């Protein structure tokens, strides 16, 4: 069964209607499990969110995945909740999904439906797909995440040829639930399609039907050998003459080889020698950054940067923090690549951790930084229109920018793969300082954009892993807020940086600073998704100041644009309760009830938040209980 791992496996994650579910965390855990996997280079993860039925269908057809992972809502009748074109809930019956997967049975190996009551869907899908996993009842967020974590951890393990990979991964998922002391270890169910018999089972049947003796079946390789030998004897009747010819040819090649080597062009000679850099790094167990030939780009920039690859090498050497320089080797590659797949193949062949490469079209050129063992989502590409490439002021800082991109990839390796967060921070912080003025020009938009993203990533590295931990790691949070603020000031399109800064400031107890960060984003882009999130979060700062009317105004604005978001409505209802407007709160929670439908897990979550509010505001306990009774 492990032969499926010999080819690169595509995992398609489809998440729909994340109200009340921690789907972002589930997706993050899946990606981290793949990053930790022993054979992680064999996996490629694609994600599609807010899925409509047509998105679901198109994503499978376009990505052609081997594993499909759905995380979202399941209903007691076995249907899954997707969305219609207006963002409203739309149920999809098991039979419809089975018909869909029947069309893709030639490449989909496993379907995992991490949603409540999804066993019926898994059962009908398993009529066409070898493995389908569903849940036989409601499953909580923690159990769903634990199962996904265990399942994908196991897919990355080394496995024997005879091992049933998906059965092993399923068992690991169950164990992960049990080890977390979650009482939902019997909820996931694995359904298997009737598989073709293995060779070991087929041979006895072959013997029965053909009457071939055991000795012949067991010695089949000898039969092939005899046939080949007989064919050679017929083709070469005079064996002595053949061997003389073979020896003469080998001697001629040995004599001619110096002349052949002498005629090889210098560039090809260098290509023959180049692997020594990689071999030396491998022997010394160093991490390798490979710089491939920048296809077409060197000639385009020959006037300003006749040796751009060398400039990148020089700047990258400077950007690597001194205390890890002896662990890093930069190797040049005389080959060029023109796609992500080619870069990955070349990098893996050479044993590199990172490969810098480039390509050029008629309208632009692009320099990419590809990380081989982990997935890096930011600072991976620098695209330049050809008209900018002719302007030295626009391109003079390119070696610095590319060095920043590469050191960001290094920091991600240390953070994710090596689990050395402190080293990762220092790597990126050191490189950022070398990319700031006077080393670069902030009037250059490419410098500003990349520095903005880099500061945001540094803020993430300084942020605590768990929400609410800023009092415990106060100094780290102060640094994180500073870097998020720098990021948004460098490039106001970094909308997430506004939200992250506001969230950190709120945790630090700086409600005024948090309010300012949220307000700045709302002023720039009030209707965007991030703008609405900022408005909901700003309401928290107003509630912390007992400014209930401003909080309610913000929440009403957001909820009007997100009418089916019960979390937004829950925030609004709680603000109305705290303002003493119980009648308005009851109307809001009636809307919440209509939105929830039969989602018992979400209802429990809302009731829990209301009980927490009752404990914090005992004077409102009676009113809160009357609202809970409505749900």
UniProtKB/TrEMBL annotation:
InterPro entries reported for this sequence: CHAT_dom (IPR024983), TPR-like_helical_dom_sf (IPR011990), TPR_rpt (IPR019734)
In the record for this protein, the TPR repeats are positioned at 495-528
The identity of this protein, by name, is: Tetratricopeptide repeat protein
Q: Which SMART domains does the entry mention?
A: TPR
Q: Matching SUPFAM superfamilies, A to Z?
A: TPR-like
Alphabetically list the UniProt keywords: Membrane, TPR repeat, Transmembrane, Transmembrane helix
Q: Report the residue ranges that make up the CHAT domain in this protein.
A: 22-153
| A Pfam family it matches | TPR_8
Question: What residues form the membrane-spanning segments?
Answer: 242-262
Q: Which domain of life is it from?
A: Bacteria
User: Upper taxonomic classification of the species?
Assistant: Bacteria, Bacillati, Cyanobacteriota, Cyanophyceae, Nostocales
Which species is this record about? Dendronalium phyllosphericum CENA369
Q: Which PANTHER family match?
A: CELL DIVISION CYCLE 16,23,27 (PTHR12558), CELL DIVISION CYCLE PROTEIN 27 HOMOLOG (PTHR12558:SF13)
